Amino acid sequence: MAADTLLAAGIAVDLYEAMPAPARKLLAAGSGGLNLTTEEKFSLFLGHYPGREERLRPFLKDFGPRQTQDWARSLDVATVRGAGGKVYPASRTAAELTHNWLTRLDNTGLRLHLGHRWLGWDEAGRLRFMTGQGETTAEAGAVVLALGGGSRPQLGATGQWRQILAAEGCAIAPFRPANCGFEVDFSEHFRARFAHLRLPLKNVVLIFSDGGQSFRKRGECLVTAYGLEGSLIYACGHLLRDSLEAGHEALVRFDLFPDTPQQALAEKLKRPRGRRSLASHLEKCLSLTGVRRGLAYEFIPKETFADSEALAAALKNLPIPLLRPRPLAEAISTAGGLCFSELDDHLMLKRRPGVFCAGEMLDWEAPTGGYLITCCLATGHAAGLAARNWLKKGSPSQTAWKRLHE
Ligand SMILES: Cc1cc2nc3c(=O)[nH]c(=O)nc-3n(C[C@H](O)[C@H](O)[C@H](O)COP(=O)(O)OP(=O)(O)OC[C@H]3O[C@@H](n4cnc5c(N)ncnc54)[C@H](O)[C@@H]3O)c2cc1C
Question: From the CB of residue 385, how many other CB atoms can be counted at a distance below 10 Å?
Answer without folding.
Answer: 20
